[in-house]
Amino acid sequence: MKKILLYSFMVTLLITISGCDKKLNEINVNPNGVDLSSANVNLLLPGILSRVSEHYTDLDFSYTSGVVQHLQRDGWFTGFNDYLWSPEDWVKWYDVLRNNDLLIKNANRDGFVFHEGIGLVVRAFVYGNIADLWGDAPYTQSMKGDEGVTQPVYDSQEEIYKGVLADLERAAELFSKNDTRGIISSNDLIYAGDAVKWYKFANSLRLRYAMRLSTKLPQQAEQIIKTVYNSQVYIDKSSDDANVEYLGNTANDSWKVASQFDTDGGSNYRRIKIGKGFLDLLKSWNDPRIYVWVQPVHCQWVEDLNLSVATDDAIRKDGVLQSVKSLTDLEYRAEIAKGHKFTRHYNPTKLGYKLDTDLYVGIGIGLKDPDSYNLNPTPGQVVQNQHVSQLNLAYTEKKGGFLKRRIASASETYFILAEAAFKGWITGGAEGHYNNGIKNSLQVWGVESSYNTLIAKPAVKFNNTLEQLIEQKWIASWNNTVESWMDFRRLGLPKLKPGPGSAQAVLPVRFIYGDNEVKSNEKNLKEALTRLEDTPYSNVRGKNSQWSKPWLLQGTNKPW
Fold first, then answer.
1. Are 344 and 316 in contact (CB under 8 A)?
2. Domains delineated in the chain
């Protein structure tokens, strides 16, 4: 009996081993791993679009809105207001490119034209931003780690831009086929599987980068802009703007200063204030976007020449002197919601200078002590400045409304066409495109009903100058200020100046190459640095400075 049982066991074991041998490869596949060659393009897509749009939005939040002076910070402000920047690594951008490279390869494998087009747009957008921000960078030898290229050469900024425009042209060609085979619309976070809108987006980016090159390569730029304009395929209405919505589930997929994820009682939100010059310009013609972007001050200064002291020691509630100098933000909001008005009186003859008594107040640019601005009674990192406007309370939310990752817009496109018409590159006058740029911006912020009134005002009605055109484009770039920085670099417009706390007397023009490159690709980095142009302002850091000029600005005498 024991022999029979032993025999049965051996037969069963041999059968099992035989079966295992036939499926050995299947058994040895890691069930938690990803076979890159078989990765589904639809599963790759949302992560790529989410990350690339977030990295772009991060620029507005961390650098560019400070450079172009839409915003200032009155806490943790030196890098934002004064341009005291550290080396900035580009790893996160190249991480997107790695995943996107897989998307393009697998889209080609599966014959998915639509996915390939999206991959080309993303690739162009990422490399375009890298070239914009740093200058020369790894391009033709990047994404080749599997071929043993661990120290890629830096291609010139010019060659990267040419590659960007070539990718966008090819993408536009693919989208023109309107072939959306294989797409799961919910995985396309921008246009939900609409090839026509992607076609418009690709062409609007072609306009963006052609205008970027308009000084250095004017003939090529003019031809590209003419071609796109004559096609009439570009983002031409704000409902087709390229945006990505926030999900609002975690801090990583929510608006940057959502109060729910702020462990410091909302101080991250409070540290961001609108810039005085920007706000004062809008106030000069009563621009309706003011009331969407910012709140009135919690406590308004009132000039009182009969006051026997320099300032009230306490605030006034509905005109009645109270016993405290300030309330907290939460207390102010609760009381103001009930209809109460708070003021504080001051006598300029006794104080020795004037304060800003307006209902909407921005912070001066590049101040040495921005937390004390307009005689804030609660300076310091808490920064509950009752005498300066805070951003709209919608900016404390996680998602929804106008909280979006903004990539490209009809407004920007029309301003580009207005500049092209101003240069004589396209038919028709610049004024119509200029007006459409303003109209579409107003639509984005829900105040389009004010368009006819605004456009008729003498300071806004088109006067056929490039300065006014770029000024309005600068205003319309709220929450998307990367493009305004790029315009300022090539044109010196608007005529922005740094404040007294700035590290240099001019605005920066590029990012500093990061420490990772210094450590891992030093030889190629050093060669790229030789192609940067020293300026009188870059000598503190040497050529790897935010004030050294890349190819795009060399020989242009711009922006300074």
1. yes
2. 38-72+86-244+480-502+510-560 (1.25.40.390), 265-396 (no CATH)
